[in-house]
Amino acid sequence: MANKILIANRGEIAVRIIRACKELGIPTVAVYSLADKNSLHVKIADEAICIGKEMSKDSYLNYNNVLSAAISTGCNAIHPGYGFLSENSHFAEMVERCNINFIGPSSKIISLLGDKATAKRIAKEAGVPIVAGSDGIIESVEDGKVVARKIGYPVMIKASSGGGGRGILIVHTEEAFVSAFERASLEAESSFGDKSLYIEKYIEQPHHIEIQIMGDKQGNVVHLGERDCSIQRRNQKIIEESPSTFISAQLRRKLCAASVKLAKSIGYYSAGTMEYLVDNSENFYFIEMNTRIQVEHGVTEWVTGIDLIKEQIRIAYGNSLSFKQLDVRFRGHSIEARVCAEDPDHNFRPTPGLITNVVFPGGPGVRIDTHIYSNYEVSQYYDSLLAKIVVHAPNRRDAIRKLRAAIEQFVVEGIKTNIEYLYVIMHQPDFVKGQTDTGFITRMNQTIEGERNAGVSG
Hints:
The protein has helices spanning 11-24, 40-44, 63-72, 89-97, 107-114, 116-125, 141-151, 177-192, 249-265, 297-304, 308-316, 396-409, 419-426, 429-433, 440-457, and strands at 5-7, 28-33, 47-52, 77-79, 101-102, 155-159, 168-171, 197-201, 207-215, 221-233, 236-242, 270-278, 284-290, 333-340, 342-343, 349-350, 353-355, 357-359, 366-370, 376-378, 385-393, 411-413. By secondary structure, the protein is α+β, with helices and mostly antiparallel strands. The chain has an eight-stranded antiparallel sheet with strand order 13-12-9-10-11-14-21-19. Strands 3-2-1-4-5 form a five-stranded parallel sheet.
């Protein structure tokens, strides 16, 4: 296998990958910006090299600097993690041309499926239902307005190379379209280095279900079940769980079969995630495919017992999948909560600063994926994600109880976080009943605000 792997990322996912490599006996190289010189991934890697200034465009999004770091340290493989360059086909192609192994699908596959508009076309050709929208990239505001009129408002303007909820705006009227289009384009270029956009019909309050697939270079593709990611704020996931409480066994079979069929139709290999919107009548619509490891991959690892990062690395070096579909067994229930440096009391504004003390929860069935520690400086330049609490229990009721206890025991001092907000979610009656959709957070926030205003007026 690999003699040395460079991790082209930061934060908790860089730490996660380095630990997987250590278990496989593979040396690692961490890259870091000036802002991240004291980050945990830098401390635990075998080697570390600075690749630029604080801004992402000068460091983690700088193709040449990342590749130069890999070449100068003698790496023959690069793991991109998620975000940054993970779904950038130009970067993957450059890696391939340098005879370095890209731990993920080929640049050609990323180009096909990483572009959300193209992915929808491929899904349609494979017979997978899709949401109505533009046939490809929208070249201008005027072209966008024509498409929006055709499919009807509300619509979603989405970054073609997007992910993580960024570069997405919901537009309810034509009057608001121009400014929304311009904002989405700017955010897409800033976050992904690609300002191209596409448009799709906005389905109000659906369930967001994703299917994890894994394929190898020999043509084998398996699914690892679903994750329900419906609890979102501004299109960014907060809580993820598996299995979903909403979908039926019949729908689960349909979603998994469609996902495997789509992956096989283009010869997909490595980890990948098919994302769907499902309405209350169990109609499902493919919206995009993420050609990388997901933030919430730990949920799937808990219920299947399969290490997705290790499997990615093995596949990249030509090994067949270490399991077949019949070998995959789903056990119990897993839920993940994302701990972020943000202030729920002030519109979730980011809260960078010094963490003076941190205490992590533990115990059977509790997993913490993180890069923070006491006296760690949370940077203003990057995503606010601090940690993921992932729990596993025999059933959903016990998983909720375990996650509540873990959240209670998670202490972060020095900065404001969303930990208390997560605790509130865990106690909402609709969440406990499993009655959630993408409108859950909005309804919950409105209830909280109403109660707060009633208390003030009283």
